[in-house]
Structure formats: C-alpha cells, structure tokens
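User: Could you go from structure to sequence for me? I need the amino acid at each position, not a summary. Structure tokens:
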C-alpha cells in the first residue's frame, strides 16, 4: 500500500511540476510580447530582430537534446544537403521562428504603412484568377515565416480579407499568451464581419465556414497540422488534417496556396501565391479528398523548402511521420485483406 501511495504522490508531484512549467511559459511569452512592444518605441527594428535571433540561438545552444533531435529531423528531410553548417543554420533559425511571431505583429503595428508599401508579391495573378470566379475560395498556408500572425492582416490590407480557422486559446495548454496574440492579430486587419472561426472541443467550425463560403467570401486554413490523412511530406507519409480538402469539395471552391515570408532583417515581407488547386468531384469522396491533399502537401513542402528556417513545425514532424506510417500501413493491410 505504501508503495502504491508513493507512486500516486510522485505522479501528482510530476503533474504539478508540468502544470507550473506550462503556466510559467504562458506568463513569460506574454511578458515578452508586452515588453517587446514597449521596446519597439525605443530600439530600431533591426536591433529587435537581432535580439530575437539571439534568443533563438540561445534556445538552440542550451537545449542539447532538442538540438540533436532537430538536427536529425532536418537532415532526414533534406538528404541532399551535405553541409552540416547549413543543417545547423536551419535548425537555429527554426528555434528563432518559435518566438518570431511576437516581433512580426509588433513590426506590422508600428510600421504597417512602410511594410505594405515595400511588400514584395509573387504570383498575385493566381489569387486574382481564383477570386474572380466568385463563389468563395480557401486560402491554404503553412506555419512559415510571418504567416501565422500576419497573413490575414496583410491580405485584408490588400483588399482581400479572409476568415482564418484557428484553435480556440481556451483549449490550449497555455491560453493567456495565445489569446492576447489572437486579439492583437485581429486588430491588425481582418474581415470585420467574420474575423475568426474557432475550432476545437466545444466549437463547430464547419457550419460557420460553410456559411461564409456560401456568401462568396474566403476562409483560411493551415495544412501543416496533425490529422488522419497520410500524404507524402519530405519523402515520407505524414498524417495531416484534410479539412481543407473536404471544404473545397463540399463548397466546390478552389484552394489558393499563400505564404508570407520575412524578407531580410528589417520589417519587410514577401508574399508568394501559387496556382489554385481546383476540386475534382468524381463521386469517390475518399479518393477525391486524397488527391487534393496530395497537391496541398506538395505546395506545403514547396512553401517550407523556400525558407526552411522560417518553418515553426519542425518539432512535430517526426510524430506526423510516425502517425503517417501507421495510417499508410493500416490502409495497405485493408487493401490486401
């Protein structure tokens, strides 16, 4: 009995420590956001960027286990890169990318006019092609560069607002910092009628998304999130969410891959739009959705490969690969049976 009680006490102690660490991280990130905003009125943009790059480097250097795992992931994803220095450079930048959204939003709030004036755009005709059809469209993107916090704001300032589907902060392990960043991001530019759709436990994202698409408006989704559709990503099956494919098939609307990169060290951005992905309804829903996801995964990989150090999701890639392998294996066994 004493052993059982000791084990239970130890589990409670560890759970309490984990909870305390999560709460501390929430507080630290919120403090970093507010402190950086205040500093932006004192320090030049390039100095703040250097501070954040240095913080990312410190995270990279002082977490040896994470550094080793990250190095291995990137090396496996890019077997063609033989230069170890380049792999480590991407890994270090990926660590900075975890905290860089804080700075992206602050830069846009402080220098919006300058950023929009100097914004580089490639492939805008692809967006115009899909948008000119009417009937709505889906903006598909990844957690790359300034995309997570700023893409919807930049698109709104270009006269093409869309409504992002995002996880409700209340359902996240940390909530205060994501909630503050969400409100801040909406304040930078959005669709005033439909600023955001919440997803997650207790929220119905499907119904409001369908209603918005029926109005001929735009919905935004990130494709690099875990799910149950196994598609190739960096040479291996990865388990990704296929909501974007089903929305496209249900509403018969195109998917437009869009990404927003940081361009240099100052408050400059690069918007890149790829050719639309049009749904093909053959009557085989499962196969139709998979074909769309294959194209979405290819576009996601291209978005990441153009600037791999700006991708935030390297840390979850192995889990996606593991889940993708299991899904692909189960599908093969089903076909053989």
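Assistant: Here is the amino acid at each position, in order:
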């Amino acid at each position: 009995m004493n052993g059982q009680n000791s084990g239970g006490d130890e589990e409670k102690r560890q759970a309490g420590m984990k909870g305390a660490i999560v709460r501390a991280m929430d507080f630290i990130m919120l403090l970093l956001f507010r402190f950086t905003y205040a500093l932006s009125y004192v320090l030049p943009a390039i100095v703040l960027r250097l501070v954040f790059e240095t913080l990312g480097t410190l995270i990279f250097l002082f977490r040896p286990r994470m550094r080793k795992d990250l190095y291995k992931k990137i090396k496996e994803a890019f077997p063609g890169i033989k230069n170890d220095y380049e792999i480590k450079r991407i890994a270090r930048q990926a660590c900075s990318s975890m905290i860089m959204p804080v700075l992206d939003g602050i830069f846009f709030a402080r220098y919006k006019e300058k950023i929009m004036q100097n914004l580089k755009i490639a492939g805008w005709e692809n967006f115009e092609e899909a948008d000119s059809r009417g009937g709505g469209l889906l903006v598909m993107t990844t957690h790359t560069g300034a995309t997570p916090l700023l893409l919807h704001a930049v698109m709104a300032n270009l006269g093409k607002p869309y409504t992002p589907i995002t996880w409700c902060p209340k359902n996240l392990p940390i909530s205060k910092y994501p909630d503050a960043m969400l409100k801040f991001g909406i304040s930078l530019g959005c669709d005033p009628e439909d600023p955001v759709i919440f997803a997650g436990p207790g929220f119905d994202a499907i119904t409001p998304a369908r209603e918005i698409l029926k109005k001929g408006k735009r919905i935004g989704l990130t494709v690099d999130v875990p799910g149950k559709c196994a598609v190739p990503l960096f040479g291996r099956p990865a388990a990704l969410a296929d909501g974007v494919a089903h929305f496209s098939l249900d509403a018969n609307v195109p998917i437009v891959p869009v990404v927003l990169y940081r361009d240099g060290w100052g408050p400059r951005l690069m918007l890149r739009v790829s050719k639309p992905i049009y749904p093909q309804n053959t009557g085989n829903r499962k196969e139709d959705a998979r074909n769309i996801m294959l194209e979405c995964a290819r576009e996601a990989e291209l978005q990441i490969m153009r600037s791999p150090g700006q991708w935030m999701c390297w840390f979850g890639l192995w889990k996606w690969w593991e889940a993708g392998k299991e899904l692909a294996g189960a599908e093969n066994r089903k076909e053989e049976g």
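One structural detail worth keeping in mind: The CA atoms of residues 22 and 174 lie 6 Å apart.
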